[in-house]
Design brief:
This protein is of the alpha/beta class. It has 14 helices and 11 strands. It has helices at about 15-35, 80-90, 135-150, 160-180, 190-200, 210-235, 250-255, 260-270, 280-285, 290-305, 345-355, 360-365, 385-395, 410-420; strands spanning about 40-45, 50-55, 60-65, 100-105, 120-125, 185-190, 310, 315-320, 330, 370, 410. The strands form 3 sheets. The chain has a 6-stranded mixed β-sheet, with helices on both faces. Strand 2 (about 50-55) and strand 3 form a beta hairpin.
Length: about 425
C-alpha cells in the first residue's frame, strides 16, 4: 500500500536521509559483490512503501525508515513511526522482510522489556554505532573504497566518486518529481549506483559543483556548532558535550540541524537577499557565525523557554505572546533594515520591497512573524515597530507593491526587552 504522502521533492543526496540511503546501498553492493550474486536483480525503491526499500527479484527484502531527530532518545517517542514501519512491511509483498530504523541519536532504552518493537525492528548501525547527522560521509567513503578494492581499481579521489553519487541521487529525484505521482518510477537499480561510482573514476574534475556545495554546507554546520559552543561557555561555563540539561539554546540548535534543507533556511533568515544565491559561497557569507550567534542562537538562548520552540517547513521559530500574528511562530532572522548612507525611509523601503518580491521564501514567512534589526548606520535611536509597520504598508515617497503578505515584525531590541522584563518567553 502507498504511504499516502509524497516526500520525493525533499529528497537529496546532500541531506541525512539521502546520505543514509547511499551508505546502505554501498554496503549492500559490497555484500552482493562478495557473494557473487547478480547485482542487476537488486533495486532501491524511494518513498513509496517506506523511506526506502531494498528489493531483490521484485520482492521487498528490507524496509528502512530514517529519522534525523536529535531531541528524542526513548523508544516510545518513536512509537508511531515504528508502528507504521511494521505495518508497511506487513502490507507489502513480503511480510517477513527485515525492518530497519535509522536514528541519528541512540535510543537509550531500546532493549527494555517494555519495548514491543525490539524483536521486530532492527536499529541500523554502522560498525556497531548509530550514524550521526554530520557523520555519514566517512562511512560512505569507506564503503566506496571497498568497492574499488574489489574491482582492483587504485583511485585516491574518493570525494569525487562520492560527489558523483550524491548528484546522481539529486538528478534521479528531480526526474521523479517531474513525472507526477501516478507515472513516477520510484525504483533505481543498484547497477546504476555502481556504474555511477565507477564512471566517476574517469572524471575527477567533473563534479566541482558538489565540492563547493559540500564545503559550503560543512562550513555552515561548523559555524553553527562553534556559535553553540561559545554561547554554552558564556552562559553556563561548561562544554556542550558535558551538559545534560534541556535548554532553549540546545533545543534550537538541534531543530536547525534537523531541517530538511539548511540552504533554504539560510535564505529564509536572509529574506531581503534574492539574486546572490547562484554563487555557492554566498551561503557561507550569509550564514555568518557571528550573526548566527548574536541574532539566531542568541535570541533563542535569551528566550529561556525550550517548550515554545518549534520548526515549520524549512525554518525554526518560537510561539510567543509578543508575536503580532498569534497563530504563527516568531522566526529570528538576520534581516537588517539599515543600509549604509541611506535614510531610514529609503532603506526600509528598499529592504521591505525586496522581501515582498522574494517569492522563494514568502511561503515560509506568510502567517508568521520575523525579527528585524537596524544597525548604527541610523544615527538616531533604534527603528521603531510603528515605523516598520507603516513602511510595510505604504510610503508617501514610493509606494510598496501591493502583493498581499501576512507577515508580522518584531524588532530585536523590543524582543530582548520583552525577554528581560518577563524573565523569558511566554505564550
Amino acid at each position: 500500500m502507498p504511504r499516502g504522502n509524497d516526500a520525493i521533492p525533499s529528497w537529496s543526496g546532500f541531506n541525512y536521509q539521502g546520505k543514509i540511503m547511499l551508505l546502505c546501498i554501498m554496503e549492500k553492493i559490497n555484500s552482493i559483490i562478495l557473494s557473487g550474486k547478480d547485482l542487476s536483480e537488486y533495486e532501491v525503491e524511494l518513498e513509496l512503501q517506506e523511506d526506502f526499500v531494498f528489493i531483490e527479484k521484485g520482492k521487498s527484502r528490507q524496509f528502512y525508515q530514517v529519522k534525523a531527530t536529535l531531541s528524542r532518545s526513548k523508544w516510545n517517542e518513536y512509537e508511531e513511526a515504528l508502528e507504521k514501519l511494521i505495518n508497511h512491511r506487513n502490507s507489502s509483498n513480503n511480510a517477513s522482510a527485515d525492518c530497519y530504523f535509522v536514528v541519528a541519536r541512540p535510543i537509550s532504552d531500546w532493549t527494555s522489556s517494555t519495548n514491543p518493537y525490539k524483536s521486530s525492528v532492527n536499529i541500523y548501525k554502522y560498525n556497531s554505532n548509530e550514524v550521526e547527522v554530520d557523520g555519514v560521509k566517512g562511512p560512505i567513503y569507506t564503503e566506496i573504497e571497498k568497492i574499488l578494492h574489489y574491482k582492483g581499481i587504485k583511485f585516491k579521489n574518493i570525494e569525487a566518486i562520492y560527489g558523483s553519487l550524491c548528484i546522481f541521487i539529486d538528478d534521479k529525484v528531480a526526474l521523479m518529481h517531474t513525472q507526477g505521482a501516478k507515472e513516477r518510477k520510484y525504483k533505481i537499480g543498484f547497477s546504476e549506483f555502481l556504474k555511477t561510482a565507477l564512471d566517476a573514476v574517469d572524471k575527477i574534475d567533473a563534479e566541482k559543483e558538489y565540492v563547493i556545495k559540500e564545503k559550503a554546507y560543512e562550513h555552515m554546520i561548523a559555524g553553527l556548532k562553534k556559535s553553540l559552543i561559545d554561547l554554552c561557555q558564556k552562559k553556563c561555563h561548561r562544554k556542550y558535550e558535558d551538559c545534560e540539561s534541556k535548554c532553549a539554546l540546545k533545543t534550537s540548535y538541534k531543530k536547525i540541524l534537523e531541517l530538511t534543507d539548511l540552504r533554504k533556511y539560510c535564505k529564509v533568515i536572509n529574506p531581503s537577499v534574492v539574486e546572490e544565491w547562484d554563487d555557492e559561497m554566498s551561503y557561507v557569507e550569509y550564514f555568518s557565525k557571528s550573526k548566527i550567534k548574536q541574532y539566531i542562537l542568541g535570541i533563542f538562548l535569551e528566550s529561556n523557554n525550550s517548550e515554545l520552540i518549534e520548526s515549520k517547513e524549512n525554518t525554526v521559530g518560537m510561539r510567543s505572546e509578543i508575536n503580532p500574528l498569534s497563530q504563527g511562530i516568531l522566526i529570528p532572522t538576520l534581516l537588517d533594515l539599515a543600509e549604509p548612507f541611506d535614510s531610514i525611509e529609503d532603506s526600509m523601503q528598499n529592504k521591505l520591497q525586496t522581501l515582498r518580491e522574494n517569492t522563494e521564501v514568502l511561503d515560509e514567512l506568510i502567517g508568521n512573524s520575523i525579527t528585524v534589526e537596524s544597525n548604527d548606520y541610523f544615527n538616531s535611536s533604534s527603528i521603531s515597530q510603528a515605523q516598520i509597520t507603516s513602511a510595510w504598508e505604504t510610503f508617501d515617497i514610493k509606494e510598496i507593491s501591493s502583493i498581499p503578505c501576512d507577515i508580522g515584525f518584531v524588532t530585536v531590541s523590543d524582543l530582548r526587552n520583552y525577554f528581560k522584563e518577563n524573565g523569558g518567553n511566554y505564550e
